Amino acid sequence: MSVLAAGLLGAACGAAIWAGLVVTAPARPDLARALDALTRPASGIDAGQADRSPNFVAVCWRLGILRASVRADLDALNQRESAYSRRLLRLTGISAAIPITIALLLAATGNAVSVSIVIVLTVAFAILAWAVVEIELRTEAARARAEAVRALAVVLSLTAMALSGGAGVDSALRAAAAAGTGAPFTRIKAALDRAALLGQTPWATLGELGERLGVDAYTQLAATTALAGTEGARIRASLVDRSNALRTQRLADIETDALASTERMSLPIVAMATAFVVIVGYPALERIMTGL
Predict the structure, then answer these.
(1) For the segment 127-136, what is each residue's pLDDT rounded down to a tens digit?
(2) Which long-range contacts (CB under 8 A, 24 or more apart) does 169-175 make?
(3) How far is residue 32's CA from residue 34's CA, in Å, rounded to a whole number?
(4) At what angle do helices 115-164 and 183-198 cross, to 10 degrees?
(5) How many Å apart are CA 171 and CA 152, to the nearest integer?
(6) Integer angstrom CA distances of residue 56 from 28, 33, 96, 228
(7) Which of 53, 68, 70, 79 has the smallest number of CB atoms closer than 10 Å to its CB?
(8) CA dist list (Å): 134 to 12, 44, 140, 144, 204
(9) pLDDT in tens, 13-63
(10) Interior CA angle at 270 toward 268 and 273, to 5°?
């Protein structure tokens, strides 16, 4: 066995021993996360879907599988931390087992297999699977956050219309949130219910929800309405301005996505033109080079 293979095998064994100690050792309670779990806004996950394996989730936090950014993405998608962690570990383990399985099959047929290459491929496959799962999570969370911004724009528009008709702020917000369906509107309704139970302003709970989900539009709304007050024409004008700003931002995002799609559509045409030029020009260039 080469020195490199021995070193990699020793590092793998050390990592396995460390992971085993982390998993078997009792997890110390994290006061910050415990208080955050008690006071954070409702994420929209039903009580029946709550995590039933807190020890496994605590171990994932200690191993670094779960982080604050990952939890924000999971809250944006209404996914459980334990389900995501199990899926991540399962796909990573399957990907890491592919090179080992191929190496065992080659060894069974009598072919020579380099241990160092198998270890490198195993680590590379595991890292690639891990990265793919996290990138997929970020992409889906970004799409869910865009839906949350659109839902907020709809709620603000309907609220401003109701305020113009003489309705109160709380009743206008509740009626506007009840007009829509889907996870974003469910989160907004849950935040309004939480504000009523805790005696807070609806803007404060919406701002906390925005901080939890990583949506800046909610936090900006809370800051704007805190300056405008809670009643009268100032709050109505503030809501109208925020709704128009969100609508303008959404139109700009749609235009940007359309331009990006157009650029992506032109890539195959450019590739075909380049291939045609190479196919046509290579024989002439080859004759010129050989004739010199």
Answers:
(1) 999 999 999 9
(2) 169/202, 169/230, 169/231, 169/235, 170/196, 170/202, 173/202
(3) 5
(4) 60
(5) 16
(6) 13, 15, 21, 45
(7) 68
(8) 23, 22, 10, 15, 31
(9) 666 666 555 555 555 555 555 555 555 544 444 433 445 566 677 777 777
(10) 110
